[in-house]
Write a structure and sequence with these properties.
- It comes from Clostridium perfringens.
- It holds the Pfam family PAS.
- It is found in: Cell membrane.
- Its main location: membrane.
- There is one protein chain.
- The protein has 166 residues and is α+β, with helices and mostly antiparallel strands.
- It folds into two domains: 90 residues, no CATH class; 73 residues, PAS domain (Beta-Lactamase, 2-Layer Sandwich), CATH 3.30.450.
- The protein has seven helices and five strands.
- A three-stranded antiparallel sheet has the order 1-2-3. A two-stranded antiparallel ribbon has the order 4-5.
- Strand 2 and strand 3 form a beta hairpin.
- The chain is rod-shaped.
- The N and C termini lie far apart (98 Å).
- The mean pLDDT is 89.
Length: 166
């Protein structure tokens, strides 16, 4: 099997069966650096059984890592879904939309003016009756008012003072 390396100077890999079983062998020539003449060759071999075992072990590790990653991903998704569900008080998105629409319908049906502000005086909600009472119905819509300071929209309400002092 070493004819190609010793006579032709080729580098190659072959498969052969020896006393220990099937093996892969790599042959490469060795050259004298000064004369550039082949002075011998080297042969390295390993049993194919060892290669197959290493391959199967690597595949097993890959499968185990994939299963582990999938398990972590599923557990993470489950925990995230439960956390989101808890934040949403157990409601599904369509239920939240329905409740929001019902709430806004009730708020707009109230004849009294309703203006809600947060702790720093930013308007978070205003109904149609409030716009009408404040003579803002034709000038602006609700979306233009929400997010603005109550003192800017409704001057002299002293709402900021009420929020600060209680």
């Amino acid at each position: 099997d070493e004819y190609r390396v010793s006579q032709k100077g080729e580098t190659y890999i072959s498969e052969a069966t020896g006393t220990l079983g099937k093996s892969l062998r790599a042959f490469a020539p060795i050259y004298d650096e000064e004369n550039k003449k082949e002075i011998g060759f080297v042969c390295v071999g390993t049993l194919t059984h060892s290669v197959e075992t290493a391959k199967h072990t690597a595949i097993l590790y890959i499968i185990l890592i994939a299963i582990g990653g999938l398990t972590v991903g599923i557990i993470g998704a489950f925990l995230l879904a439960n956390n989101i569900k808890k934040i949403l008080m157990g409601l599904e998105p369509d239920e939240i939309t329905k409740l929001y629409n019902e709430r806004m319908g009730i708020i707009d049906a109230i004849h009294e003016g309703l203006v809600a502000v947060d702790h720093i005086g930013i308007i978070t909600l205003i109904n149609d009756s409030a716009l009408k009472i404040l003579n803002l119905k034709n000038a602006v819509n609700k979306e233009q008012i929400i997010g603005h300071n109550v003192e800017e929209v409704i001057p002299n309400t002293h709402m900021i003072n009420v929020l600060e002092t209680g």
